[in-house]
Amino acid sequence: MGLAKQIICSKSPVRTPMKPNEDEPNVNIIFDGIRWVVRVNELGIEHAEEFTSERHARSWASGQRLRLNLDLEASAGDTDL
């Protein structure tokens, strides 16, 4: 089972290092071959939301970046495929 599927199946927040400093808030979008997954890391705790539409995933990710006061310009090209 892929990483994205493991995160989605978990009922509780998953603590997964996404960057060298996992305490820095960040938002990532990945495509697991079936669905788009937006991973939000805040205070070292990761939350994942899944979407069938890339457009909806990017929109939700942009909202999370805005909420976390992250650079919205960086969001255009940070999709992990």
What does this 3D model show about the protein?
With 81 residues, the chain is an alpha+beta fold. The protein has one domain. 26% of the residues lie in helices and 27% in strands. It contains 2 helices and 4 strands; from the N terminus they run αβββαβ. A 4-stranded mixed beta sheet has the order 3-2-1-4, with helices on both faces. The longest helix is centred in the C-terminal third of the chain and has 14 residues, at 54-67. It is globular. The two termini are 16 Å apart.
Topology:
Blueprint: H1 3-9, E1 26-31, E2 36-42, E3 45-51, H2 54-67, E4 79-80
Parallel strand pairs: 1-4
Antiparallel strand pairs: 1-2, 2-3
What is this entry, summarized?
This protein is of the alpha+beta class.
Characteristics of this structure?
disordered N terminus; alpha+beta; about 80 residues; single chain
